[in-house]
Design a protein that fits this description.
Blueprint: E1 5-6, E2 9-10, E3 15-16, E4 29-30, E5 32-34, E6 36-39, E7 42-45, E8 50-54, E9 61-68, E10 74-80, E11 84-88, E12 93-96, E13 111-115, E14 118-122, E15 129-131, E16 136-138, E17 151-160, E18 163-171, E19 174-182, E20 196-198, E21 205-211, E22 214-219, E23 222-228, E24 236-243, E25 254-255, E26 260-263, E27 268-271, E28 276-278, E29 299-303, E30 308-313, E31 323-328, E32 333-337, E33 343-349, E34 379-385, E35 390-393, E36 399-400, E37 403-404, E38 407-410, E39 422-434, E40 439-447, E41 455-461, E42 468-478, E43 481-487, E44 495-508
Parallel strand pairs: 3-4
Antiparallel strand pairs: 1-44, 2-44, 5-38, 6-7, 7-44, 8-35, 9-10, 10-11, 11-12, 13-14, 14-15, 15-16, 17-18, 18-19, 19-20, 21-22, 22-23, 23-24, 25-26, 26-27, 27-28, 29-30, 30-31, 31-32, 33-34, 34-35, 36-37, 38-43, 39-42, 39-44, 40-41, 40-43
């Protein structure tokens, strides 16, 4: 019998791979990577989430965002389909800004921008709104000078070169799907200069994001710049970057340093402002799982502490987002998380801090921590809004509001002797595992593409906070070997830093 040899799999970077058959995939590629991702070369079960606050209204949230006040301080806000809410740091509650319903009930996600002490909000169905820290009001957009509002809706709002810019407007009941309209420089109350530009295309605007001191605008199947001209008669002009890729999901745009991510009809793309390329070629099947009828509910964000881009999306046939496509921006390694939510956002901790001398009530009654290392000013805390009007804190703890996170990782089909036409005998499997407490990892063993495991073994980790090797035995001969890692214990983290299957050649392969 030939001796066994270890085949170490470590510093894993490939991530989720669905573009090739499992028997052709590299050893650090996984056809299933669910509620786990590759971080710093290791497989890590995703962190959990906790309840942060709730509106109590029971309506889906359309944005979790913030208002930058005139003094530079920030206030966390949330919007649902009808009303605006503000976060009260002393009570931990979301209290309504609106005393009655304001928005019409549209499920469209909210576009917002801060400028000169006010945050402006647009949803593509209702009039432009603004909030100044005290109250929210409708913004009158008088185009003709007659003193009446003539803007029925705007899909997106941005600020550039001291001008508030509205995109894909409806003016006097007429849709302008490729229009950018801006106010007088420095004055969002003056729209009478008839300053606008329609892009020379029949496509609709499907996404807007500030980038490199200009504005990138995604249409159905093209990407354009709205560029500043320095000409006071026409301060902005359209400049096309690329045809073929645009945006199928208006809020799938996310800035990743020197690139912008977007979900097009063809797949996930990224642009540097000069070219547009697909970034999901290693996992092309993922786009097929997104609901084509509900793509407007997709929402993307960049989580800097994780160096990950998250795309929240509804499954085909679903009515609300329930999956997150996760991309590590350094390796472009993908994973999928199961987190039901309606939007992604951030709270900048410490911005709404209260001085001790100004804090009402007693020391004992204060609900938060007086000293918190994570609550330093400007530190972004990732949040998500949900269907029931609640806000959850992401990447917090090991469980989802007390429910365990169920990790599932399926390896490719392994055989180090495939190029020689030989079968392989798997003697044993070593795993380098780390957890923050005693826990058990379950491993299913498969052979030759079978959907039923020939055995299931458990590996118990008893060294909290320290990496430890665990060994599982097999002894089975097959043309290809495959394993599935499962972990769903509450209150525990789990990371697999390396896998080392021990193989020996075992005669000619059958397939």
């Amino acid at each position: 019998m030939s001796p066994y040899s270890p085949h170490l799999v470590c510093d894993m970077r490939a991530g989720l791979r669905t573009d090739i058959d499992p028997w052709l995939a590299p050893a650090d590629a996984f056809p299933v990577l669910l509620d786990a991702s590759l971080e710093n070369g290791a497989i890590r079960r995703r962190s959990g989430f906790s309840r942060f606050a709730e509106t109590g209204a029971g309506r889906p949230l359309t944005a979790v965002f913030h208002h930058v006040k005139a003094d530079g301080s920030r206030e966390m806000l949330a919007a649902d389909t009808r009303r605006l809410f503000r976060y009260e740091p002393m009570t931990g509650a979301l209290s309504p800004v609106d005393s009655s319903d304001a928005w019409s009930g549209s499920r469209n996600l909210l576009s917002w921008v801060n400028w000169n002490g006010r945050v402006f909000m647009a949803n593509g169905k209702d009039r432009l709104r603004a909030y100044d820290g005290r109250a929210a009001e409708w913004v009158k957009v008088d185009l003709s000078g007659g003193g009446e509002n003539e803007l029925s809706a705007a899909a997106f709002v941005a600020v550039n070169k001291e001008r508030l810019i509205l995109f894909r407007t409806t003016e006097n009941g007429v849709r302008c799907p490729a229009r950018a309209r801006w106010c007088k420089a420095g004055d969002p109350s003056d729209w009478t200069g008839d300053e606008y530009a329609d892009a020379p295309t029949a496509e609709w605007i499907r996404g807007v994001i500030p980038f490199a001191d200009e504005i990138l605008v995604f249409f159905d199947e093209s990407v354009w710049w709205l560029k500043y001209t320095w000409d006071p008669a026409l301060p902005f002009r359209w400049e096309e970057i690329s045809k073929g890729y645009g945006s199928a999901a208006p809020f799938s745009l996310a800035a990743l340093g020197n690139r912008v991510l977007a979900l097009s009809r063809a797949g996930l793309t990224a642009t540097d402002g000069a070219t547009v390329d697909r970034v999901d070629l290693t996992a092309p099947d993922l786009i097929g799982s997104v609901s084509r009828d509900r793509s407007e509910l997709c929402c993307a964000a960049f989580l800097p502490e994780k160096r990950q881009a998250w795309l929240l999306y509804p499954l085909a046939g679903g009515s609300s987002p329930e999956r997150v496509l996760v991309m590590g921006i350094d390796e472009r390694a993908f994973a999928v998380f199961r987190i039901p939510a309606t939007c992604l956002g951030f709270r900048y901790q410490g911005d709404a801090a209260v001085a001790w001398s100004a804090a009402p009530g007693s020391w004992e009654a204060y609900p938060g921590a007086w000293v918190d290392a994570a609550a330093r000013v400007g530190f972004p805390e990732a949040l998500a809004g949900r269907e029931d009007g609640s806000v959850i804190r992401l990447n917090d703890g090991n469980d989802d509001e007390g429910a365990p996170v169920s990790m599932e990782v399926l390896s490719g089909e392994w055989n180090p002797y495939r190029d020689q036409g030989l079968a392989a005998r798997l003697g044993r499997l070593d795993l380098l595992v780390e957890s923050d407490g005693e826990t058990t990892l379950y491993v299913d063993f498969y052979r030759d593409g079978s959907e039923a495991p020939y055995q299931t073994k458990s590996a118990t980790v008893r060294t909290p906070g320290r990496k430890t090797w665990v060994r599982l035995f097999s002894g089975v001969t097959a043309d290809f070997h495959q394993i599935r890692l499962r972990h769903a214990e509450a209150g525990r983290s789990l990371a697999v830093h390396a896998l080392a299957p021990w193989f020996a050649p075992a005669g000619r392969a059958v397939i």
